[in-house]
Amino acid sequence: MEGQGAELRNSFRRSSRRSNDVFGSSSFQQGEQDDQEALKWAALQKLPTYNRLRRGILTESEGQINMVEIQKLGFEERNNLLKRLVDVAEKDNEEFLLKLKNRMDRVGIENPTIQVRFQNLNVKAEAYVGNRSVPNVINSLRNTFEDALTYLHVLRNRKRPVSILSGDLSGIIKPSRMTLLLGPPGSGKTTFLLALAGKLDSSLKVSGRVSYNGHDMDEFVPQRSSAYISQDDVHIGQLTVRETLAFSARCQGIGTRYEMLMELSRREREAKIQPDPDIDLYMKATALKGQEGLVTDYILKILGLEICADIMVGDQMTRGISGGQKKRVTTGEMLVGPVKALFMDEISTGLDSSTTFQIVNSFRQSIHILNGTAVIALLQPAPETFELFDDIILLSEGKIIYQGPRIHVVTFFESMGFNCPERKGVADFLQEVISIKDQGQYWANQEEPYRYISVDEFVDGFKSFHVGCDLNEELSTPFDKKKNHPATLTNSRYGISKMELLNACMSREFLLMKRNSFVYIFKLCQLFIIGVVATTVFLRTKMHHNSVEDASIYLGALFIGLLTHLFNGFAELAMSLTRLPIFYKQRDFNFYPAWAYAFPAWILKIPVSLVECALWIGVTYYGIGFDPNVQRMLRAFLVYVLMSQMAFGLFRFIAGIGRDEVIANTIGSFALIVLLVLGGYALSRDQIGDWWIWGYYASPLMYAQNAVVINEFLGNSWKHVSKNGVTIGMQLLNLRAYFPQSYWYWIGVAGLLGYIFLLNILFALALTFLNPIRERQDILSDKDSLVYTNKSLSLEKDDVSNGSDKNKKKGMVLPFISHSITFENIKYYVDMPSEMKREGIIKEDRLLLLNNLNGSFRPGVLTALMGVSGAGKTTLMDVLAGRKTGGYIEGDITISGYPKNQETFARISGYCEQFDIHSPNVTVYESLIFSAWLRLSHEVDINIRQMFIEEVMELVELGSLRGALVGLPGVTGLSTEQRKRLTIAVELVANPSIIFMDEPTSGLDARAAAIVMRTVRNTVDTGRTVVCTIHQPSIDIIDSFDELYLIKSGGEEIFVGPLGWHCCELIQYFEAIQGVSKIKDGYNPATWMLEVTSSGQEQILDINFAEIYKNSELFRRNKNMISNLSKPPAPGSRELHFPTQYSQPFYMQCWACLWKQHKSYWRNTAYNTTKIVFTTITALLLGTIYWGAAKKSSTMQDIFNTAGSIYSAVMFIGVQNSQMIQPVVDIERMVFYRERSAGMYSALPYAFGQVIIEIPYTLFQAVIYCSIVYSMTQFVWTVAKFFWFMFFMFGSFLYFTYYGMMAAGLTPNSTIASIVSTIFYSIWNIFGGFIIPRTRIPKWWRWYYYGCPVAWSINGLITSQYGESDDIISDTGVSNETVKAYLRRYFGYHHDFLGYILLAIISFNVAFAFIFALSIKKLNFQKR
């Protein structure tokens, strides 16, 4: 009957529509469409169930109705369907979700729900305390050693337990309700969310229980039933937004949608219910495998990502979407899956309040209508966003202060004696009322004097509050497992079959290879260049087949080929490391098993190896003059391909076990040394000691070396018989101890194949069982002050200034002169982007970003510079501060009535950038000392300077953090809010008169923003001129400003003037404009102002706010003020003048920069400790392998063995030094750009400090290496020989380090520097004089031998030890030839030349250091 009734209703509805306008053509067409729809539906219902679920009725954009196969839906069809369902997300999404729910309600199907309970939950970590907390070289070595002994149970654990979540947390997260998680930084929000999602790190100690619908975590797969959305945006930059979400949807699968759809279709058919065809088509498309596109398109729409759907996500190498859009991609990546519980960590970072409101509102609709479960942590939720939530959880110090309905949270705090002021956002109030510093202002109990109410007292008060009592009562009743829907919790580990996951990963890998085609083309070009160089060095016309020495040269050419392909695989290390964070995230979300990720990276690299090796063979084989037999050429090609594949697998495996750039690069360099030394070339097999011979047989390079050597030297080219009756080829094989049997070629091939399989399997196992290396945990001082923090485990205590009076106006020890700044008719242009020109959008050559701006900023006045995103706020500030590095500026800028001069202006101004850039390895106090040292006048006494720094630290509330390490943003060190305060303090210690601040509250929670704004207000009250750009201020923050400078899109001013009490003057100005809507009571004036002045409102009202302002009395008043301030204040006054450009003389700049680098290097454990450990292990390795080799010099092989040890150390320790310094220079260079712009020092003192500080550390490295190797290899112990050896090794390590610095200075970032450097490493390897001596290098290349620093190093090291030896070498073919004569004849080494070698080594160091300094001075890769 119900089905018949539905049909009657549909029939009546169609009849009614037709009768409404019987003469109207549109009504007739509508009726015709309804009839077509009914016919199509009837035909659809007659199909078998399998076919019926795979077909649907689609209404085309032209109105035509067709039955379509869902699996063949194209982009246009999907887009058309989605437009019909959700045309505008803000308006249509709720209606669409209600249609979905109503369809299921009509047949009695309920969506499965999840109730999450946590009982007696505690989480603890372990941390070092006291002096051991400060990271430096000594502590790093000591901690590593003790950790190893603790692991072996030799020592007891010396770390102290630290509670992250405590107090036996208990509570319930209910379905169909939105829960907001609030808390100050370090309160444990992230840890709490990870605990609920079942994703806590295994190193943490967890007690208590978390259950879903009464089931413990081990009874189902939590990663497939819930999703944790991280605050970190980790994505593959080369994929578009759509591709990123589509891959996620493909891996997560459809869950139980298909089974639910089958049951839904069955019940509808029984009840004869005809569903909405659009809803039916959508549900079928989202329930079928392979149709992830529709779900992806829907999520893109509700997250507002349609505009950038086909734009690359981007990374530091690839320009992509904005930070706010990346945050939404992170959220969307999990929303496209079928999970039913969402735990979202600070998803609004980088978003304005209106976008945040829209996204949270979409979540609210979905949670309420489809019965989902959600906990969302937000930083500064606006009042309208706060109102969207049903429940609140308030965390502090790892304890839950309140959990319950939002409507009761204010009542709870009223019961504790605190009131929320009328104009205060409740979310802001909640985060400040639990702070020891901010709590007192909300005390409302007049009967009792205020005292600090601790977190524990709040927790106890909540237990007696009626909400807490109800919660405890509900927790006492266990969840009835019978209510758990079978489809709610998932037991399958992955969303689709493993073969489908392999196909998905294979498709993505292939796509990424195409997107990274530049890398592979670059590698081919690099290979071609090295091949051409090798061919022209080993040119066949200069190569002979007459002696063993000739054969040795060919052997070197073969070795160069193998080594080139081994080095070529090194790039796989960096590429694998870059992708590991994405892999770990997706692995932990159970997107795919590790082997499904590892094997495509292996399989798809095989064609790459084939192409690279074909190019190498084509360029070098016949050019060098190897055996011309085609079969032998193909055999050589096979070995090179296998060698290339082995190298790819080796460095992927090293990336998998290293997991960190420094560690993996160190292991990679160590592996290269081991492979090289034990590969049979640098040290012959018969010279390897019994304790290392296993390493020879374990070296894959040995198998490749034996295979290519046998393939070449058993060929016809080497069949000439020497005097002793043995062929030259066989004589070389015997001399160098290669296996002479021909079957060893196939053993070599088999060995390489075995290693290829083994290394790739080990890579998959490493990805399976190893977790990412976590950043070090919190380290606390014995006095409970923070010394070193980690973003996930910050335990900061509220820092309180002892004895400070809030109402006391802060003074300053140093006097300063107040200055105003005025600007008139400011215009700023940039060159028109080529894309816009090419597409014909705009034909002009320049793009106008600032259009005729006028204004003035005065002492003691805090001015807000506001506007929509892209309006030009930061651009104007950069123009006024002189920070622009490009573009064209027009207009006039005056400082206290005189034209602005940038050099003098930098001395009286400060600029707090949005991104807090500081040297990571110095403390807060040291950062301030350095800034004050170089920016205050040299006439300021050191004691006064110290007092001034202390005053500033009190002003910005950094007293308790003076010993805290700054660290890297978002990784280690200070929290975001603490870094903001440090940024302000670094500028304040310069005693500036004018301060610019770019987004000082961006990325902060409400309480942190309040602390920063209090700092800003205190600064203004000292009489300084302060201007802040600000994006979306809260009511409190906008009230703290005195004046507003408002810019609209296009860079035009629309309001410049005082805000008034509670922004009354701003409100009066805009409300007086006809058509502008009035502000609602309690609404944020800043939000209202941006809404009513948007470009959309201008179009609706048909007005131009810029024109209205320019015709206003306010504009005329401002012009008069500008005119008055643009004149000199007094007839006898003078403009700003300083006798020197910088505050300190040149020598003092050098000393200060060196002081800072000393502090930074001592604490840079990742760099210096790793370098020391690597050098020590390498020295022990080479010492044991070459044990006693240096005292042997009776054969040519003895000389080659010793030369091999020298060559190995110089090349590979040197390369490691060069690679490791590049990221250090890259990070510090960003700090240098900021400090140079601030006028702290010139480029040369900075370069001086960076260059000089390397000398003691590199000298220590050389002492370690030489002390170990010189004694173990048993060189002749004389003072002169040892110090020659020491100097040449020290000089070699140092010029490699300076070369790495130079490469970093000449390129935009360390990644490009690393790639460019590799080319020169390979060429230096050829011309180093070991593989081919100078005497055998063609004349046209000999000049480069003299320009190769490695050649001078090897020359100096060998000559200093053997250049005077009269020992006889027995097998050179020359009777009674001494060692020094052989060195002179074969290598071209002369002992008398040592002085020139000394000068050459010094010259290379000076040249590389000088070019680094020049690059720092002349090149600026920071574009503003």
Automatic annotation (TrEMBL):
One of its GO terms (cellular component) is membrane. The chain crosses the membrane at residues 518-539, 551-573, 594-617, 637-655, 662-683, 743-770, 1172-1189, 1247-1270, 1282-1300, 1312-1331, 1343-1362, 1393-1416. Gene3D superfamilies: P-loop containing nucleotide triphosphate hydrolases. InterPro entries: AAA+_ATPase (IPR003593), ABC2_TM (IPR013525), ABC_trans_N (IPR029481), ABC_transporter-like_ATP-bd (IPR003439), ABCG_dom (IPR043926), ABCG_PDR_1 (IPR034001), ABCG_PDR_2 (IPR034003), P-loop_NTPase (IPR027417). SMART domains: AAA. The keyword Repeat applies. Its main location: membrane. Residues 22-31 have a biased composition (Polar residues). Keywords: ATP-binding, Membrane, Nucleotide-binding, Repeat, Transmembrane, Transmembrane helix, Transport. Residues 1-31 are annotated as: Disordered. It is a multi-pass membrane protein. The keyword Membrane applies. It is found in: Membrane. It comes from the Eukaryota. GO terms for molecular function: ABC-type transporter activity; ATP binding; ATP hydrolysis activity. PROSITE patterns: ABC_TRANSPORTER_2. PANTHER family: ABC TRANSPORTER G FAMILY MEMBER 39-LIKE, PLEIOTROPIC DRUG RESISTANCE PROTEIN 1-LIKE ISOFORM X1. Belongs to the ABC transporter superfamily. ABCG family. PDR (TC 3.A.1.205) subfamily. This is Putative pleiotropic drug resistance protein 7. It comes from Zostera marina.
